[in-house]
Amino acid sequence: MKRVFGAKKNKEPPPTIQDATDRINKRGDTVDEKIKKLDAELARYREQIKKTRPGPAQEAVKARAMRVLKQKKMYEGQRDMLYNQTFNLDQVAFAAEGIKDAQQTVSALKSANKELKGMMKTVKIEDIDSMQDEMMDLMDVSSEIQESLGRSYNIPDDIDEDDLMGELDALEADMGAETESDAMPSYLQPDTDLDAELNLPAAPTGNAVQNRPNAQAEDEFGLPAVPRASLRG
């Protein structure tokens, strides 16, 4: 069958914009090399024209230089045309890349939109509102529990403002009395009335004992002093 109808040839894919751009750039480089060679040849003819006297010889050099200049102009025209083609391809490539970016952006947005829709199906506003109401109720119950646990016992509730001011006045009077007695508590202060009623004599001092005749010497604690000779043994 292949011999009768022949095998189907695989078509080559069409060149891409980048392939066309690379091909044109290579042609442009080739044309630039030719233009550089023609410039060098023109420079050589210019020196010959300067050194040659006017006449047939100089005219022949000028003719050759004119022919080279025409070739240079032709190549420069081709180079400009290639540059224009490259510019057009760059514009098309930029537009194609922009379209690709737009396609990717739209695809990403569609995927994100589909994902958001799936997520929104699992989240309902009614459920959120119900959960918020339950949280408020739980907070109120928690506050009531804390207040109930923090109640104090055996505290009278019939205290009014007059009782408060009387208590403050009594505290102020007690503080003033303690200040007058050098901050010494009343139970530590000496009772002068009790000493007057008992009429007890004053305790003798060491000097009074020494002033009595035939009194035995005493130490600083009021005890009989021991002679030092007896201590030495």
UniProtKB/TrEMBL annotation:
- Keywords associated with the record: Coiled coil
- Pfam families annotated for this entry? Snf7
The ranges of region (Disordered) come to: 1-26, 172-233
Q: By its UniProt entry, which InterPro entries does this protein fall under?
A: Snf7_fam (IPR005024)
One annotated Gene Ontology cellular component of this protein:
multivesicular body
Q: Which Gene3D superfamilies match?
A: 6.10.250.1710, ESAT-6-like
- Composition bias of kind Acidic residues appears in 172-181
Top-level division of the source organism's lineage: Eukaryota
UniProt-listed GO biological process terms: late endosome to vacuole transport via multivesicular body sorting pathway; vesicle budding from membrane
Family, according to the entry, reads as follows: Belongs to the SNF7 family.
Q: What is this protein called?
A: Charged multivesicular body protein 5
Organism of origin is: Asparagus officinalis
